[in-house]
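Bench notes, bay 3.
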Amino acid sequence: MEWIDKVKGFFAGERRDLTDPEIRKEAFFLLSEIYGIARWDEFAMTVRQTIITRHPVQKPSFAEMEAEMREVHKLFEPWLN
């Protein structure tokens, strides 16, 4: 699916601060592209897998990953549920 590649591209690399206005703008642009195509459960699973594989040598701790997923949930879940 094309939207999965867009989501992976957004969350790959360095962790993004979803409270930063510029990052939020990019996030809402991504949301506008996937709205109506992606379901929340598929989206969340893709983001979680991307976060886990972001650092192949040192994976993020469970607490770090959950903190990032809470930020993602607050921003995206109301629109994709």
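Next record in the batch:
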Amino acid sequence: MEAQPVRWRKSSRSTAQGQCIELSEPVGMIRDSKDPDGPTLKADVPAFVRAVKAGRFDR
């Protein structure tokens, strides 16, 4: 079975100076858009998105 290639998706609202992340397709990984060769975080992306929308990461 061949591994599916990973594609990365960044928000259309992202700017060069922003603190943005990218989400993988297929779903399951997150990375810093400013460091595409850096580490990735395996995550429950739907749960992460729900937490962001709920304001759990607001300062």
